[in-house]
Amino acid sequence: MVRRKKEKKKPAALGIPKGIVLLATPEAWRFSVLTLEGGVLCGRLDVAINTNPEDARAAAAAMVTGLARDFHDTDVEVHWDPPPEPWSWTAQVTLTSDSERWSRRTCAQPASASRVSDGHPPGDLRSWPSPEETA
């Protein structure tokens, strides 16, 4: 009998965040992260239920900022909107100006950066500006 090799499951890809919904429930602080690609990541914040709203919003913003950095090597800013109703908050997530530079993971050059070919094949990291050149 021939056995098949087990395929390793790839972790789910998280899209670039574009918004946050934060809700205070009797059990926990719940969040939903909306992505540019149309996905949604839902869960519970790792803070106590009696945490004040400002600290819960700061924890949600730190989580989204960390996810964007870890999954996409980009920096984001979180801007909280005025609450539409008690115990409910929404935020807009935007890429920072530093994130408009090329991404090391995708080797994609932003549309705003036009460079003349320097003789290296496309996608070769030698053709990209160093962080010192872009600062």
Describe the structure.
- The chain is an alpha+beta fold.
- Helices cover 18% and strands 24% of the residues.
- The protein has two helices and five strands, in the order βββαββα.
- Strands 3-2-1-5-4 form a five-stranded antiparallel beta sheet, with helices on one face.
- The relative contact order is 0.14.
What's the arrangement of secondary structure elements?
Layout: E1 17-24, E2 29-35, E3 40-44, H1 53-72, E4 76-80, E5 88-95, H2 131-134
Antiparallel strand pairs: 1-2, 1-5, 2-3, 4-5
Share of residues in helices:
10-25%
- Alpha-beta classification: alpha+beta
Count of extended strands: 5
Give me the number of helical elements: 2
Measured by DSSP, the beta-strand proportion falls in 15-25%
Topology as H/E string? EEEHEEH
Strand order of the largest sheet: 3-2-1-5-4
Overall radius of gyration? 20 Å
Mean pLDDT: 76
Low-confidence stretches: 101-131
In angstroms, what separates the terminal alpha carbons?
Answer: 60 Å
Query: What profile does the largest beta sheet have?
Result: 5 strands, antiparallel
Shape: globular
